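Progress report, Aim 2. The chain analyzed during this reporting quarter is listed below.
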Amino acid sequence: MTLKQRPTQTAAYWKSEFEINQQSLDALYNLFVETGSPQSVERLSLFFVQQALLAEEQAIQAELGQGDVYRPDKSYQTGDKLVFPNFDYAIADVVGVRSGYNPVDEEFSVIDVVFNDARHTAASFAANFQRPHPLSTQGSGDEGDNKDDPAQTILAKFRHIIIPAVTESLSRHADYVEFNRCWLLRDMVVDIQEGLLNIIDAAIDINAGPLNVDELIEPLDLHQDGVSPATLQFSVNYKLANNTQFLNVGASNLVLWYLNRLKPASVLETPHNLEVQSDLLFETHKLPLDLQALMKEIDDEATPPEFAKAIGADDVETTFVLNYPHRRSGTLPVLPAVRQLLPETDGRLLALRLVDGQSGDEMTGWFVGNRNYIFGLGDWFKKYQLPVGAFITLKKTSYPLKFIIDFIPQRSRREWVRVVGVKNNRLAFEMKNRALACRYDELMMLGEEGSADIDLLWQKFEQNKVSLHDILTRIFPELMKLSAQNAVHTNTLYSAVNVVRRCPPGPLLQELAGDPVFVWMGHGYWTYKPI
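Predicted C-alpha cells for the chain:
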C-alpha cells in the first residue's frame, strides 16, 4: 500500500474530477440571495473549494463509520476493523497480533492486517507504540498542510487550475452573468432602460472624457430598496459592456466608460509612421555580439525585449529618447521599461491621465496595448517644441491610470544641430542654428523643416517600395558631409532612416553589417565606400 493525500489536495482532482454539480449550484444560489451582491471569481472559487472539501469530508466520515481509525499508540485485537486515512481511507481487518521489539523503541505490538481491496493486500503495522508518532496525533488522519484554512491553502496552490475551471463552468449556466471577473445571478441584475443609455451617452460627451460607474449612476436615479450599491454598479457596467455604443477604457480594477464614436482615429488604426513593414526581416544570431550590444543604446519598442534597456521591478519612472515616427505621430513608444509602469490590460484601449510635468495640466493619452504605443501627445510636443532626440520621462503616480509626462528642461540657447528637410525629392541634412530648451541625445537629435514634404516623400518611398539599402545609400553621403571624420554613428543613421521609413535597430544593423559598402569603424561608427 502507498500513502495517499486526500483527492482535493492533488492537482489531478482539480484538473479532471472537479465539477460544479447541482448541489453546489443550489448552494451558490443561496449565497447570492444571502449576500445580495456580485461575487468575484476568486471568492466563488474559494466557495466551490469549500463545497468540494465539505463533500469530501462527508464521504470520509461515512468511511470512518465502518471501523476505528488506525493509530500506532492504540492496542488492537484480532477481528478489529480499521480505517487507514493515509491510504485513501482503505479498510482492513486485523488477522493477527504479535510482539515487537527493537533497542530504540523497546516493546510494542505488531498487527497483521488484510485490506478489503481486490488483491486482499496484506501488511503489518505497529500498535501499542508509546513513543511520539505523527499518526498518533493526527485525528482523522490527514490535515497535512491545511492546518489553518484548508480551502485557502488549496486555492492558493491550484488557483491556476481552479479559477479557469470555475469561470468556464459558470459561463455555461444562463442563470449567471459576468463582468470584469465578477458574477451575479441574472435575476438580480437591475433593469437599465434603453432610454437611460442616452443620458449616459450625453454625460460622457459633455465630460469630454471617460467617467466611472458612480459618476454615471448619480443622474440616473436607479437606487432601489434592497439593492446593494455593488449590485447597482454591476448592473450598469454589465449593461454598458453588452452595448457596442460604449467602451470600457479603464484598468482591470478601475472601470471607466467612454463612447466608441469618440475614439481618436489613431487608436483605431496604427499611424503609418509606426508600421514596421514585413520585408524588414531580422535574425539576431547573425549579428556579431558588439553590434547586438548597440541595440540596447536605441529606444525602440520593436526591439526584442532581451535587447531592451532594463528597469528595476520597483522603479516608478523611466527616461527614453523620442524618435521621428513617434514625434510625427504624436505618440509615445511603449518600450519594456514603459510597459512595466502601465497597468495590466488584455489588449483593450486604456485612457491614461497624463500630467504635464512642467505646467501640471492634464491631458488624455490612449494606451493601445496590442500595438505598443500611447497616442495623444502631438499638441504637447508642439507646445514645448520638443525635437527628435529629446529625452522624455514617464513617471507613475498612486492612481493606476495617472502618469507624469515630462522632458528635461534647460535654459533656452541656440545650438548648431542637424536639420532634415526635402530638396529635389530627396532628404537633405544641414547644420543649422536652433534655439533649444530641453536636453537631448546628440546622436539622435534632428530638427525638421517641411513636415508635409517629408510626409509626401515617405509616401513616395512606400509606393515605390524603396528598399532599406537604397535609403541608406541616399542618406549616408548626406550625413557624412556633416562629419569631419566622414563617419556616421549607428544611432544617427537610425534617427535619419526613420524619417522616411519605420525601421527598428535590428534590421538596420543587419543591413549595415551585411553589405561591404558600409564599413564598420568601431565604437558605433560606420563609413560609406560605394564599390
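The chain is about 30% helix and 25% strand. Confidence is low (pLDDT under 50) at residues 139-146. These observations will guide the mutagenesis work planned for the next reporting period.
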